[in-house]
Amino acid sequence: MKRSIKNITLISTFVLSSSVALIASDLTKAYDMPDASKLIEKDLLKEPTKFTMPKSCNLDDAEAIKRGEFFFHNLNGKKAKGEAPKGVKKFIETKGKDGKMKKKPKQYGNCVACHNIEGAKGGGNIGPDLTGYKKMFVDTKTRDAQFVYQKIADARIDNPKTHMTINLTTKLFDESEICDLTAYVMSEKKQTKEK
Ligand code: HEC
Questions:
Q1: Residue 155 CA: which ligand 1 atom is closest?
Q2: Nearest CA to ligand 1 atom 43
Q3: I want to staple 127 with a disulfide (CB 3.0 to 4.6 A). Which of 115, 139, 168, 184 is the partner?
């Protein structure tokens, strides 16, 4: 009898002290809680940013136009259409079937997902059709190089509610790559029947 009373006392002391410990302990330390505000800040798009087209942009450079064309028509994550032109800077390394590492050009232009243009295969229609851009917008002086450069770099300056991807503010592309895209959009292109 004496022993069982002692046991009950022991058990109740244990229950009491452990519940006190539970109340007192700081539960936030029990989980790994990332600081969400930092994550959100990192994901937030930076303010709309104005850019001036660099003087080094050579819009008549045939190689720049070729690179711009390559960026424009290639979709992220898909097999690259065509050979990477000279001067394309970004590559991803993948292991080929033979086990050797292979360098493949990295694509993320995605322009053709929203825009139709000469030679586009499955061009999207979320953005305006850019076919005949030179004749329609450049030669008529409706648009100039600075406008096109800014549009591709950060379309929000011209249109705060744009649905277009932001390319320079986000560093998806660098300045010289925006030059390449500007050169391509503004260039004279052969009309093709492909769509
Ligand atoms: C998610 C869809 C989308 C993608 C991707 C996209 N655009 Fe656009 N683009 C638009 C929309 C919508 C407009 C028209 C509204 C606006 O100006 O913001 C536009 C407008 C433009 C214009 C302006 C045409 C004019 O003179 O009014 C140019 C030039 C252009 N895009 C080039 C590009 C290039 C180059 C790329 C690839 C780097 C690209 N766009 C990717 C949706 C897109």
A1: 18
A2: 164
A3: 115
pLDDT digits (tens, 9 = 90+) for 159-194: 999 999 999 999 999 999 999 999 999 999 987 655
Q: Which tokens hold the place of 50? A: 């104005």
Distance CA 177, CA 183 (A): 10
Measured CA to CA, the distance from residue 83 to residue 151 in angstroms comes to: 27
Find out whether the beta carbon of 44 lies less than 6 Å from any atom of ligand 1: no
Is 187 touching ligand 1 by the criterion CB < 6 Å? no
Render pLDDT for 72-104 as a digit per residue (tens, 0 to 9).
999 988 888 888 999 999 888 888 889 999 888
Residue nearest to atom 24 of ligand 1 (CA): 128
Dihedral sign for Cα 136, 141, 146, 150, please: negative
